[in-house]
């Protein structure tokens, strides 16, 4: 697993709330920073937290109670967000509680600056901790336009949250499925079993459970050889709600079909800062959920084998979708969701082996 972290001082919703003053918060954060940085490889994302009851930036003694934010409150809020963004590398996103709070910090209305980690708007996401609880999720969104804004942004930024209230029909299957898809959900903390049971009795639980985050399957392979030059295309389908939100690398491992010790590896897709229409297959964070108009993700490649393959008759292929921070730990490699036996995942190295697929050189 990877951790999604939030720190909080209090769960009180009546005054005095019991959260800490800004100078104490920043002091504690600096003490925590080395621990967080040492464990960055197993942190999925970080939530701003610290402020108010449950760390949700409401019911706070020091940062603007119940949404009444003064100029000094905003300065203090900004200082906390800036500190978090500085502590975490550009490869990790920070989640703030609402889109309005994000806009207050960034000062811009636009949500989209895809994959450009030099821009705060592409690193600062939001989390919805009253998902489906009311028309606007109990203040998560200011209005319907705000919600539509979130639908666009979460294509590129991590989204998740938790339920806080049973609210049929919005918490029932049709609405839940529609909203999770629109918000490109990566995770959800279910803390209301009545909602979970509604999904089970409504027949959508298994679908929802299997679609959180990405769900990648290999759909087709095309490879040709011209001497030691291999060219081709891998096509994947993403039946999940979201693309991978953190950097990944797709490594093609080519080895001799007769002697697996003869092998070479090539990175054929990674996590580019920006993706265009022609390069999206090369950027794993742009492997968006498949649609009827874009059913597959195309990853073209061309690699040149070394002379160690000069006398090799046939080669076989493995795909390693590795985490660049944990490249040798198979538990953090993506296992392709192929239901056939054409792809086999190895718990020795995290490789997805293409069974029965060889190419003559």
Explain how this protein is built:
The protein has two domains: 209 residues; 145 residues, Immunoglobulin-like (Sandwich). Helix content is 22%, strand content 24%. It contains seven helices and 14 strands. The two termini are 40 Å apart.
Overview in brief:
By secondary structure, the protein is of the alpha/beta class. Helices cover 22% and strands 24% of the residues.
Q: What attributes does this structure have?
A:
elongated; 361 residues; five-stranded antiparallel β-sheet; six-stranded parallel β-sheet; Immunoglobulin-like; alpha/beta; 2 domains
Number of helical segments with 4 or more residues:
7
SSE topology string: EHEHEHEHEHEHHEEEEEEEE
Total number of domains: 2
Shape: elongated
Low-confidence stretches: none
What structural category arises from helix and sheet content? Answer: alpha/beta
Main sheet properties: 6 strands, parallel
Mean pLDDT: 93
Give the termini separation: 40 Å
Radius of gyration: 23 Å
- Biggest sheet: strands side by side, in what order? 1-2-3-4-5-6
Extended strand count: 14
Q: What is the share of helical residues?
A: 10-25%
**Strand content range:** 15-25%
Any chance you could write out the topology, listing elements then pairs?
Layout (H helix, E strand, L loop, with lengths): L2 E3 L16 H17 L4 E5 L23 H17 L6 E3 L2 H8 L17 E5 L15 H10 L5 E4 L10 H10 L4 E3 L3 H9 L3 H7 L4 E11 L2 E10 L10 E8 L6 E7 L27 E8 L9 E9 L20 E3 L6 E9 L1
Parallel strand pairs: 1-2, 2-3, 3-4, 4-5, 5-6
Antiparallel strand pairs: 7-8, 8-11, 9-10, 9-12, 12-14, 13-14
